[in-house]
Write a structure and sequence with these properties.
Layout (H helix, E strand, L loop, with lengths): L1 E5 L10 E5 L8 E10 L2 H7 L17 E8 L11 E4 L14 E5 L3 E3 L6 H4 L3 H11 L10 E4 L5 H13 L2 E6 L5 H6 L4 E4 L5 H9 L4 E6 L6 H6 L1 E9 L20 E4 L3 H4 L2 H17 L6 E6 L3 H9 L6 E5 L3
Parallel strand pairs: 8-9, 8-11, 9-10, 11-12, 12-13, 14-15
Antiparallel strand pairs: 1-2, 3-4, 3-6, 3-15, 4-5, 5-7
Helix pairs in contact: 3-4, 3-9
Amino acid sequence: MARIVQFDTAGGPEVLELRETDPRSPGPGELRVRVDAIGLNRAEVMYREDAYFYPPTFPSGLGYEAAGVVEAVGDGVSRLAVGDPVSVLPTFLQTEYGTYGDSVLMPADAVVARPADLAPEKAAAVWMAYLTAYGALVEPGRVRPGDHVLITAASGSVGLAAIQTSLRIGAVPIATTRSAGKKARLLEAGAAHVIVTDEEDVPDRVEEITGGEGVATALDPVAGPGVDTLAEAISPGGELLVYGALDPRPTPLPNAQSFPALSTRTYAVFEITTDPARLARGVAYVDSGLAGGMVDPVIDTTFDLADIADAHRYMEGNSQIGKIVVTVPH
């Protein structure tokens, strides 16, 4: 029997149930993965709450990331074989597939080979964060060596990946966090500067750090009214990328009469993962970073699959620095 996590109604972590089911055979273009580790993402919490950009269909699985080994392949799958160590990329909707389980079906185009010497826990913590950072900072080609990049809510897995990606470009990452207790960890992670937003004014500190020039790019998962403050810190012609909605309040468009001209847009990793050419470039970029040690996901803590509800509660507490990973015993 296989074990999968499902829920029958939207709600808190308590709606998640670990259920036994017969393993399914992969269909054409699919494969089955024996899961060893799962990377958790804020998107899954929002999906469970029915606060994501598409609603769940019940009973629903969930999960975008995992690492494990190929158990079976369907017709038309030739790139991977049984026994190959692999990682799962977020290319699909959670209404169609999910990674929360010990044996799951996946579309073959969502699965990539992983280095045999990369531990499953690390491999499960890579792709959502680093493809998000790649698509925001590398693929558009706007961020150049020497540019300042403002990374808000930087203690999350995407924030830490954006710090590493900025350094790889040669840019200067400026991290923000609400908690002074996270400052030292962000500096250790490579941030050139850390602004504690509960104690410091973001535009004033950015002006001080950049000598009055402002940042070329701000990468923000929070949204809400705070984007007006971020806009004050962006240089003329710079860009504000909003890739999340941690603040559910309406997000204003910065007023061109109040701020220098800048580009403001929303961004989602699916711009990369649903475009085969972009995805291929992103995978190559991340793979080369893994090989060269420039991609090094930070794992905050791990939970057992049986404790998936506790893992979601921990994520909702917002105390983590880096990725929360669920391990799957066999």
